[in-house]
């Protein structure tokens, strides 16, 4: 890596949040919250998580899927998905199993995360065969994994020139683009996040950006969340932007997106189909309903768009 940015213990703590999230997802999948045949490759057997954690992850995954499907309904498979800070996300494989496999799929994350994900992919046939071309070819070059239509790239999102170079290496073009950023921007300093957002808004004239991260961190519950993360070595340099959802949407508009909306996850949860909520509520008894509501009030989903094709994306679509 030719970055001027050096790796720190804080970076390692951020990287560790990927392991935590993957284990939480596997727990929820094992309990039947949603279906994911591939999460087992990225997390070994895990201890059972609290019901409010499982339900919170369900709302997160379901909300992201809802907007991903709206995006694909409008542009079909002739599009690209760029997953910023991808971690061990399994979306690529789940889409391959559906009729919604996309033309190009690019994933970016820290080199150590990419190296481990590449290793897991290479040693598991069920993962590898989904990314191989007709000749079964997968290339590893300079720590990056390339195949036809899938690129797993090591990248420091704080370094915009590197992001630009890696996107070019992954074949990012002018096709309609879905940009995913789950718990990513909060770990970037405000100036780095602003530069990244402005570049994405300018580079992709037909795009949807989905951002999932903390919100309302200025109250006492938010302060406890930040103290807990700090105790694990995770600073939140983007915390000043993790205020009310309306401010998060305004930030995306200021970066150059044409439309932007944001909702806390309590609002998202209540907007999910009643039958879906009833199904997952029957999976586990939930004693701490107030705790779940507090958690949901401190995470938000933001949706920003460019191009008329996506201007009407909405939570209740």
TrEMBL record:
One of its GO terms (molecular function) is protein C-terminal leucine carboxyl O-methyltransferase activity. Methylates the carboxyl group of the C-terminal leucine residue of protein phosphatase 2A catalytic subunits to form alpha-leucine ester residues. Belongs to the methyltransferase superfamily. LCMT family. It catalyses: [phosphatase 2A protein]-C-terminal L-leucine + S-adenosyl-L-methionine = [phosphatase 2A protein]-C-terminal L-leucine methyl ester + S-adenosyl-L-homocysteine. The keyword S-adenosyl-L-methionine applies. One of its GO terms (cellular component) is cytosol. S-adenosyl-L-methionine binds at residues 60, 85, 156-157, 182. The keyword Methyltransferase applies. GO terms for biological process: methylation; regulation of signal transduction. Its EC number is 2.1.1.233. Keywords: Methyltransferase, S-adenosyl-L-methionine, Transferase. It is an enzyme of class 2 (transferase). This is Leucine carboxyl methyltransferase 1.
């Amino acid at each position: 890596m030719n970055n001027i940015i050096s790796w720190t213990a804080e970076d390692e703590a951020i990287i560790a949040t990927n392991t935590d999230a993957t284990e939480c997802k596997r727990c929820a999948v094992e309990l039947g919250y949603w279906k994911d045949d591939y999460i087992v490759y990225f997390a070994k057997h895990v201890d059972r998580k609290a019901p409010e954690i499982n339900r919170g992850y369900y709302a997160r995954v379901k909300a992201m899927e809802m907007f991903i499907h709206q995006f694909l309904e409008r542009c079909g498979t002739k599009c690209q998905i760029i997953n910023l800070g991808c971690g061990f996300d399994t979306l690529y494989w789940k889409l391959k199993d559906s009729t919604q496999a996309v033309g190009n799929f690019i994933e970016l994350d820290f080199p150590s995360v990419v190296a481990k994900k590449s290793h897991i992919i290479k040693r598991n046939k069920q993962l590898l065969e989904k990314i191989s071309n007709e000749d079964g070819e997968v290339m590893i070059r300079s720590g990056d994994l390339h195949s036809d239509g899938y690129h797993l790239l090591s990248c420091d999102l704080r370094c915009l020139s590197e992001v630009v170079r890696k996107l070019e290496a992954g074949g990012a073009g002018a096709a309609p683009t879905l940009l995913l950023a789950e718990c990513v921007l909060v770990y970037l300093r405000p100036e780095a996040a602003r530069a990244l957002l402005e570049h994405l808004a300018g580079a992709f004239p037909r795009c949807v950006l989905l951002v999932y991260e903390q919100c309302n961190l200025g109250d006492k519950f938010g302060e406890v969340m930040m103290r807990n993360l700090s105790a694990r070595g995770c600073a939140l340099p983007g915390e000043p932007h993790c205020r009310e959802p309306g401010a998060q949407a305004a930030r995306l508009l200021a970066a150059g997106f044409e439309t932007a909306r944001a909702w806390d996850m309590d609002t998202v949860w209540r907007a999910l189909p009643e039958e879906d909520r009833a199904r997952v509520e029957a999976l586990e008894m939930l004693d701490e309903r107030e705790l779940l509501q507090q958690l949901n009030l401190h995470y938000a989903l933001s949706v920003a768009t460019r191009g008329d094709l996506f201007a009407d994306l909405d939570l209740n679509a």
